[in-house]
Design brief:
The C terminus is likely disordered. The radius of gyration is 21 Å and the shape is globular. It is an all-alpha fold and 451 residues long. The longest helix has 36 residues. α1 packs antiparallel against α9, α2 packs antiparallel against α18 and α6 crosses α17. It has a single domain, classed as MFS general substrate transporter like domains (Growth Hormone, Chain: A). It is a multi-pass membrane protein.
């Protein structure tokens, strides 16, 4: 087995033209993947909870069941990280990303065709769960590959900024999925929307997949991977190697990821179900979420650029503190039913908190792992965190209770997730200033590569 402690690092500073193509391809492709993933979250809180489970199920139990199928996608993401991490380190970033977009988009399209519980009984939630599982595998392999296609050919001093650009896919995905869902629900009568209108955003995924597939197929392979292949340095068992030689690094990466995933889904998915119980409409949450997603198109690259100057770990720690501080004010604002206050706390919590944690991660995780196992390392850690983070709406619903009276416990959940990320970043070594130039892609994390 190859040791990753020493050795020459492939050149990664690609040409400006290559970098532009990689940024456009990765951002658009990532946007399509996250459109698919977020769309399911909105539907889980507003449609699936009563259409795909037995009639007579209480709203609370229906929400728990719907969020359970939602969580399945996150449980599948580590498997996707393992499979596509190995695939991406062995045969190339580009080929792995072509498969992930087909898997994600195909599963989403089929969700739009599924018969409900009233039509096929228990097979409806089972089929829904199976498709969500496929979605999870696809997105589990997407994030690491999409970011690596950019960071592996970006100059070291601006890797935070360039690495943050594919992260815009999350904002684009949330914006388009929530926007289309909200638009259709607002322009159709409730009966038609519940009967068939909700299916339209899912079916529209086929168009997005066709566009994304064209973009992915026209993209050149990462120059870092090309050089590894030319030099015969492809790792035979990248998953095994990275797990044996960098287990603590993977755990730190997972910890860094917990708050941005978990808190985001509590504030945008769980709160949909909670808002309805206190007399708000789903659009009272969806519209502020749309505005926040639009602002993220500015704040994500902003925080990426800040991490190039302030450092990755400090930027992430700032985000963790902001999210913890907003844990109570967020639910207080929702309880006031004041639209402006809800928007304000979402802007602070997500754009100043969550985005500060999320934006530097592409550069940070690239710098933590050598090129031979980078797809694997940058996929496994984040997707382990996704298991907990994606279950956050389910956990929050269980903590809140049937009458949603346990919101104090949900506030505690947000605080805990924020602290996990803060401590994980504190325990990690800064990588932004360690090296500059063409050989700066793999900087040992805290404790060295064998940690």
């Amino acid at each position: 087995m190859t040791s990753l402690r020493h050795g020459h690092e492939p050149a990664t500073d690609g040409s400006a033209a290559q970098r532009r193509r990689a940024v456009v391809s990765s951002t658009l492709g990532s946007s399509i993947e996250w459109y698919d993933f977020y769309l399911y979250g909105v539907a889980a809180a507003t449609i699936f909870n009563h259409q795909f489970f037995p009639a007579g199920t209480s709203p609370y139990v229906g929400t728990l069941l719907a969020f359970s199928t939602y969580a399945v996608g996150f449980l599948a993401r580590p498997l996707g990280g393992l499979v596509f991490g190995h695939f991406g380190d062995r045969v190339g970033r580009k080929k792995a990303l072509v498969v992930t977009i087909l898997m994600m988009g195909g599963a989403t399209f089929l969700c739009g065709l599924l018969p409900t519980y009233a039509a096929i009984g228990i097979w409806a939630p089972l089929a829904l769960t199976a498709l969500r599982f496929l979605q999870g595998i696809g997105v589990g392999g997407e994030w690491g590959g999409a970011t690596l296609m950019v960071t592996e050919q970006s100059p070291a001093r601006r890797r935070g900024l360039f690495g943050a650009l594919p992260q815009l896919g999350v904002a684009f995905g949330a914006l388009t999925s929530n926007g289309l869902f909200s638009l259709i629900s607002a322009t159709m009568d409730e009966r038609s929307f519940q009967a068939w209108g909700w299916r339209l955003p899912f079916l529209f995924s086929a168009v997005l997949v066709a566009i994304g597939l064209y973009i992915r197929l026209s993209l050149a392979e990462s120059p870092a991977f090309q050089q590894l292949r030319e030099e015969g340095k492809i790792e035979k068992k990248p998953i095994v190697t990275v797990l044996r030689q960098q287990p603590l690094t993977i755990l730190r990466v997972a910890g860094i990821r917990v708050a941005d995933i978990g808190n985001y889904y509590v504030w945008t998915s769980f709160v949909l179900a909670y808002a309805v119980t206190i007399g708000l409409s789903s659009n009272d949450i969806l519209v502020p979420t749309l505005i926040v997603s639009a602002v993220s198109l500015l704040t994500i690259p902003m925080w990426g650029a800040i991490s190039d100057r302030l450092g990755r770990r400090r930027t992430i720690m700032v985000g963790g503190v902001v999210m913890a501080a907003l844990s109570y004010p967020f639910f207080w604002a929702v309880d006031t039913r004041n639209w402006s206050l809800i928007l304000l706390v979402l802007l602070i919590g997500i754009n100043l908190g969550r985005d500060a944690c999320y934006a530097p991660q592409a550069a940070y995780f690239t710098e933590m792992f050598p090129a031979q196992v980078r797809y694997s390392g940058a996929s496994i850690g984040p997707q382990l965190a996704a298991v907990f983070g994606g279950c956050a709406p389910l956990i929050a619903t269980a903590l809140a209770g049937p009458d949603f009276g346990g919101i104090a416990q949900v506030v505690g959940l947000v605080v805990v997730m924020s602290l996990v990320t803060f401590v994980a970043a504190l325990a990690s070594k800064e990588t932004a200033f360690a090296l500059t130039g063409r050989d700066a892609a793999a900087v040992p994390a805290a404790g060295g590569n064998a940690s």
